[in-house]
Amino acid sequence: MSKTKHQQILSFIEDLTIGNKVSVRFLAKELDVSEGTAYRAIKEAEAKGLVRSIPKVGTIRIEGVKERLIEDFTFNEVAQIVEGLIICGEDRMDECPNKFIIAAMELKDMERYLEEDSLCIVGSRTDAQLLALKHNVPLLISGGLEPSPEVLKLAKEKNSIIIITPYDTFVATTLINRALFDRLIDKEILLIEDIMVKDVEYLEEDATVADWYKLSQTTGHSRFPVVDAEHNVVGIITAVDVAGVDQDVVIDSIMNRNVFAVNREDSVTHISRIMVWEGWEIAAVTENERLIGIISLPDVLEALQQIQKQPQFGETVDNLVLSGFRYTDESEHLTIKGEITQFMANEFGSASCGVMVTLMSTTGYIALRKKYRLDAITENFSFFQFYPIPVGTEISITAKLLMVTKKNCNIEIEVYNGDELLVKGLMTARMGDKK
How many domains does the chain have? Predict the structure, then answer.
């Protein structure tokens, strides 16, 4: 994969001779990038120990410390993070797992993911424990459950690692995920400006449907942003909007004025999640409301497929939990549906409290964004009813916006299995900026 501008600048800085001065203006001129991009790269280079800002001297290239990689994350560190007890394999605890596997599937499906030097996070499933050990995969057993004599014997024969954590699978995975995120927080983040199309095809608000057909035939596209005389984005026009409309009709009267606008410095992972969940096919990239670029959902997904191949980018626990849920239009309130999987279960085989908070609060956020284009930060989440939800249960989660003001909102969230109410909670949140 070709390097982004941000990566190119960091590589350029790294290749500079020790003692060389580095400035925003110098990088912008040498690499033909904006001063904002150059500034961000210098700040990251400073965080990586490649440069240092010295008063009255400037920013200087220095001898950097070798960056610690994700591959340095050892089994011993995993054990400390999850407060684990090492049962066997003490002499291998300085080794590093190359990936983490959650035993939340049938054995025949699980087997193809088992690779040596991985770490299998598993509950009380003896069959899954034995299968992992047969493939030389160490175990992290959740729920404080001791392995059976058969499992312990095989682990010792294979000189494999077994760690027991008192936490359930979800909490243990969350702790590991948080530690990895903290380790990697300073690594590069792919930004919208790295993937956006800058040479944007657009229509002006006084254009006609005939102009849309002409531009569509020329470009092969069917969706275009619409701008006013100041080049501000005022709408989106698609094939659905022009279907059956006379060609002399002005597009201002039929375009969709509900535009999803993003900033060039937004992260691709954040925007991708919004586009997937809310069904946006394209997003206008704006600066002071003026159109500077455009991204499409296929562009975003392709970029994600590329960055997920890199070790510094991983799936978050939130995304793992939400990956099996889908949005529905069955009621006046926003509803998502999905199944409680083994990964979401506690030691009793039902959905853990942490999973339900994640699912319910995310449903509330989506409802708020879809109706008001607002972001929010949770201040309090209270359960008023909570019945155990066994693994395999199909649930629907509905968010009802009770009160929305400029500063706060209250959202009632209910979880059903068919017509049976299983969980009910109230989420209070502080409002963010309108998007």
Answer: 4
DSSP per residue, 399-433: EEEEEE-SSEEEEEEEEEETTEEEEEEEEEEEEEE
DSSP 49: T
What residues make up the domain containing 413? 317-434
- For residues 426 and 409, is the Cβ–Cβ distance under 8 A? no
351/283 same-domain check: no
- Residue 399 in any domain: the answer is yes
Selection from 215, 288, 224 nearest residue 254 by Cα: 224
Q: Are residues 287 and 259 in the same domain?
A: yes
- What pLDDT is attached to residue 149? 93
Residues 292, 238, single domain; the answer is: yes
Q: What is the CATH number of the domain that holds 56?
A: 1.10.10.10
Residue 210 belongs to what H/E stretch? helix 209-219
Q: Is residue 358 included in any domain, yes or no? A: yes
- State the helix-helix crossing angle for 297-307 and 268-278, rounded to 10 degrees: 130
pLDDT, tens digit (0-9, with 9 covering 90-100), for 282-306:
899 998 888 999 998 877 777 665 5
The tokens of 322 are what? 């939400």
Give pLDDT < 50 ranges for the chain.
1-2, 65-71, 185-188, 309-315, 434-435
Nearest CA to 100 out of 343, 303, 341 is that of 343
Q: Per-residue pLDDT tens for 241-272?
A: 888 899 999 999 999 998 899 988 787 777 87
Residue 311 lies in a domain: no
* The pLDDT value given to residue 67: 39
Two tokens, residue 285: 């990239």
